[in-house]
Inverse folding.
């Protein structure tokens, strides 16, 4: 046994080196495994958040589609009812005796009405040139009372459609508001 002592003293540094190497290897493996475990947990949590966000996105898309569809259905139904109402008004306006009374317009008023008519009936995406010069007196015109009645009824119908469309848009956005 005493003869083995010098040999053990020579092997001791190698044994301590092997132990230190083993401890370092264990620490590296433990650190890598814990880092991998943490990364996997974080990735799993992120996947859950992505799935939840997608679900929320899909719910909003369905809610949006439902609100738009409901608004369009209400708008179409109310537009049909408004058209019926205005058709009855047009019929009532035409039942009376025709009026030959003319309402004279001065040149400036005729020009303003002409430009307003041109803008109202033009393509909304195209710019409209407005003739700001007052028309000459010879182009001044007039309209009969019957023409004015029908024009007013058409304008009221267009306004009612525009207002219903605007209110429908507001209602659909209100339905989509997130509480």
């Amino acid at each position: 046994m005493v003869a083995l002592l010098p040999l053990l003293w020579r092997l001791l540094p190698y044994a301590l080196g092997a132990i230190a190497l083993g401890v370092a290897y264990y620490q590296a493996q433990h650190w890598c495994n814990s880092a991998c475990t943490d990364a996997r947990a974080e990735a799993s949590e992120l996947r859950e958040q992505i799935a939840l966000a997608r679900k929320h996105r899909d719910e909003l898309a369905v809610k949006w589609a439902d609100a738009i569809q409901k608004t369009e259905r209400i708008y179409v139904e109310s537009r049909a009812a408004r058209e019926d109402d205005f058709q009855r008004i047009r019929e009532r306006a035409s039942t009376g005796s025709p009026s030959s009374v003319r309402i004279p317009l001065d040149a400036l008023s005729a020009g303003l009405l002409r430009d307003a008519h041109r803008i109202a009936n033009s393509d909304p995406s195209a710019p409209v040139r407005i003739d700001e010069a007052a028309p000459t007196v010879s182009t001044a015109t007039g309209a009969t009372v019957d023409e004015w009645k029908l024009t007013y009824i058409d304008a009221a119908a267009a306004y009612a459609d525009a207002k219903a469309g605007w209110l429908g848009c507001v209602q659909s956005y209100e339905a989509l508001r997130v509480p």
Remarks:
- Strands lie at 102-104, 142-144.
- The CA atoms of residues 35 and 41 lie 10 Å apart.
- The chain has one domain: 14-105+141-176.
- Residues 14-105+141-176 form one domain.
